[in-house]
């Protein structure tokens, strides 16, 4: 695997699709909201609100390729479990 662009004019099409289907992510709690501001300030590629702020942003995609939800980089993988179980 190699590094790929997720934002800007050179963004890979898969990331453009994911961002179009789920343009926002939830930052729940005061620490998460503070992190959101910090990440936006650190990003040198973020131009739109739908852009990916950090490399730990997660997308849940169903077997048909439909984006179910977008998760903030601060979301722990175990916090996604209930959504995955709901899809099964």
Descriptive report:
The protein is α+β, with helices and mostly antiparallel strands and 88 residues long. It is globular and about 40 Å long. It is 33% helix and 10% strand. The termini are far apart. It has one domain (13-87): Glutaredoxin, CATH 3.40.30.
Low-pLDDT runs: none
Question: How many helical stretches?
Answer: 3
Strand content: 5-15%
CATH topology: Glutaredoxin
Computed over alpha carbons, the radius of gyration is 13 Å
CATH-defined architecture: 3-Layer(aba) Sandwich
CA distance, first residue to last residue: 29 Å
CATH superfamily: Glutaredoxin
**How would a textbook summarize the main sheet?**
2 strands, antiparallel
- The CATH class label is Alpha Beta
Give the ordered list of helices and strands. Answer: HHEEH
Helix/strand/pairing class, anyone?
alpha+beta
> Strand tally, please?
2
Helix content: 25-40%
Question: Overall 3D geometry?
Answer: globular
